[in-house]
């Protein structure tokens, strides 16, 4: 219980540090969002100084409040669930924009990462158990080759071959825009159909990491005394492979899996750009380009919470999977 309390305090401190950095770092960048909007408005005609001052007042830049006073107001708004108004889509609330985009990112990223993790670990176990066989000899260099291809090039190749040349899959948007958005079979099928190529890109680019780490760790684990004892007791190969060796060999991948889940929120920027896929990653790019402080801070906060939450779940998974961790923490 004491260990859990210390970990919770650590995560609270990490969240506060993340929030603080999210507030100060964008404000250290040159320029301000009012100037960015003025540049867009000047294309339509001249802008008066009064209009500029009104925009700066609305966006909270060049204000007479000190930076620390603004920081206090920002923390108070966060505690009340107020993330502010988006600058680039004024006057839409930030939480509305995030709510519209994050669902697409979470569904695509979570499904792709889970598939990649499960396949990579399973193939890694099989390759280690049958090391030196054709499966091991073929898959190891093949997966290494795939992991060496730059991620955006792999996305472009898949898009060109399966989307443009063969025309098997759509290569833009997250669904058929002629359909009504809702929980109906036509829309769900369209969303799944449009997500196949982005998901395939994520799986192919990440599966090699899970596979190779699992294979190498599994080979080391197979030489441990408790695995040799399980074989000597005459247990079935499947039970020894999965319940004795793989259960302990997967522990290093658990941390990586937690980090992968945590970075889903903002880690698919290139995927969403290449495939014109709606999501939070593309919103992050627009927020950076438009110096949209509220949207930028809210997205970073969601990313930080996702990473910290995933790491906390990884801590709990370690306790459940490894008896040695439970004994050390109870001591």
TrEMBL record:
Domain ABC transmembrane type-1: 102-314
Entry's transmembrane regions: 7-25, 102-126, 138-166, 186-213, 249-275, 295-321
UniProt KW Iron keyword: no
GO biological process: transmembrane transport
Topology of this chain in the membrane: Multi-pass membrane protein
Listed SUPFAM superfamilies: MetI-like
Subcellular location(s) per record: Cell membrane; Membrane
Pfam families: BPD_transp_1
Keyword tags: Membrane, Transmembrane, Transmembrane helix, Transport
Chief place of localization: membrane
Superkingdom of origin organism: Bacteria
GO cellular component entries: plasma membrane
PANTHER family: OLIGOPEPTIDE TRANSPORT SYSTEM PERMEASE PROTEIN
Family (UniProt): Belongs to the binding-protein-dependent transport system permease family.
The protein's name: Peptide ABC transporter permease
């Amino acid at each position: 219980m004491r260990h859990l309390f210390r970990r919770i305090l650590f995560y609270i401190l990490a969240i506060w540090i993340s929030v603080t950095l999210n507030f100060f770092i964008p404000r250290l960048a040159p320029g301000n969002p009012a100037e960015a909007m003025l540049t867009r408005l000047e294309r339509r005609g001249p802008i008066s100084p009064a209009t500029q001052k009104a925009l700066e007042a609305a966006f909270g830049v060049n204000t007479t409040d000190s930076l620390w006073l603004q920081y206090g107001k920002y923390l108070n708004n966060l505690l009340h669930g107020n993330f502010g108004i988006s600058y680039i889509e004024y006057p839409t609330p930030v939480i509305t924009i995030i709510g519209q985009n994050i669902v697409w990112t979470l569904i695509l990223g979570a499904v792709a990462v889970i598939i990649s993790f499960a396949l990579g670990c399973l193939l890694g176990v099989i390759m280690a158990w049958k090391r030196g066989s054709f499966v091991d000899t073929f898959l190891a260099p093949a997966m290494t080759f795939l992991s060496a291809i730059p991620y955006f090039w792999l996305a472009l190749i898949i898009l060109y071959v399966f989307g443009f040349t063969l025309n098997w899959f759509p290569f833009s948007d997250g669904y058929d825009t002629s359909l009504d958005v809702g929980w109906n079979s036509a829309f769900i099928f369209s969303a799944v159909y449009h997500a196949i190529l982005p998901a395939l890109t994520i799986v192919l680019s990440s599966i090699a990491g899970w596979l190779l780490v699992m294979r190498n760790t599994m080979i080391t684990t197979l030489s441990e005394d408790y695995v040799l004892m399980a074989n000597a007791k005459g247990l079935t190969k499947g039970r020894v492979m999965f319940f004795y060796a793989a259960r302990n060999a997967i522990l290093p991948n658990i941390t990586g899996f937690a980090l992968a889940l945590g970075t889903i929120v903002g880690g698919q920027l290139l995927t969403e750009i290449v495939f014109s896929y709606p999501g939070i990653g593309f919103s992050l790019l627009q927020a950076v380009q438009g110096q949209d402080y509220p949207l930028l801070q809210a997205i970073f906060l969601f990313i930080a919470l996702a990473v910290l939450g995933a790491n906390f779940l990884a801590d709990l998974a370690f306790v459940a999977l490894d008896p040695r961790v439970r004994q050390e923490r109870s001591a």
